[in-house]
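Not sure how to ask, but would you mind making up any protein sequence you like and the tokens describing how it folds?
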Amino acid sequence: MAETLVLASTSPFRRRLLADAGIDFVAEAPQIDERAVEAALEGSGTRPDDVALILAEAKAQEVSGRLADALVIGADQTLSLGDEVLHKPADMEEARRRLLALSGRTHALNSAVVLARGGETLWRHVSVAHMTMRALDPGFVGRHLSQAGERVLGSVGAYQIEREGIQLFERISGDHFTIVGLPMLPLLAALREHGAIDG
């Protein structure tokens, strides 16, 4: 295809999903302050899934504004516990507190994806996965984090479902791609519709 496909993300997980699907793309870091975007939404009643969509759209529009001839994929994921949106833990102590807060409860992973060209949004989508953690013993949480290591700090939930994190869960409702942070089936359909991939 003549048009360059760009992933506006620094996430190694999203890059891996696209590469594993055989998609030819380049990655470009979006130059936005995500926390500033979220701060502007505080108190507005914006739902956590819409926060993910707004962030994904901001990333896609920023990169597509710089790379006008490219089709840009923007993606973001929020973790919501009720109406509260949680962010990546800053350190292992915060990761420990996060897992204990999620223990025995159901949280949502809201994964948004947007296509943009020339700073204009062409398509938007959000998929939601519901994740129910089993009741966790604090001692187990400490041992789990010791084994998993600091890579958990790259995840809003302080877990990696594709690794040891699967042991934390009692029930999951949603697909693997939504959990990892890029709803691949809707995205692939949209890329075919826009002529970006063969199909």
Observations:
- The longest strand covers residues 120-133.
- Residues 174 and 198 are 27 Å apart (CA to CA).
- The helical segments are 12-20, 34-41, 48-66, 92-102, 138-148, 176-180, 184-193.
